[in-house]
Amino acid sequence: MFHRSSRLLFLLLFVAGCETGPELGTVTGQLLIQGQPGNKVRIEFLPDVGTSGPSSVAETDSDGRFSLQLMDRTDTPSEGAIVGQHRVVLSDLQLAESATGRGIPIRFGVQYTMPSETPLRQTVVAGPQQITIEIP
Length: 136
Hints:
CATH superfamily: Carboxypeptidase-like, regulatory domain
């Protein structure tokens, strides 16, 4: 009896240990706004139709470069994004950091800030990838 229950316990622990999360792609890249690096922009990848899972976010540096982080419910961030099709939404952090917004140029249209209106789509594949997001 003890031998049988220990095998069952081992099997349950093995199956629990084999559980993996969703398939991810490691995504790095650069945001270009009218051909220039888009600094201080929050980029969010939202899973689109046919792709399920949490969104991924990044903030661009002074060269417009970014590295996506998965927004899951764990305390430790994961690099990347869910494999599949995504809508890409932008938030201008220069405007957000300004008390009034006065004197801050509008760098991209409001459609890029709304999940339902953004024209930006990006496919994430398994493994590492580097992308360029261009805003005319």
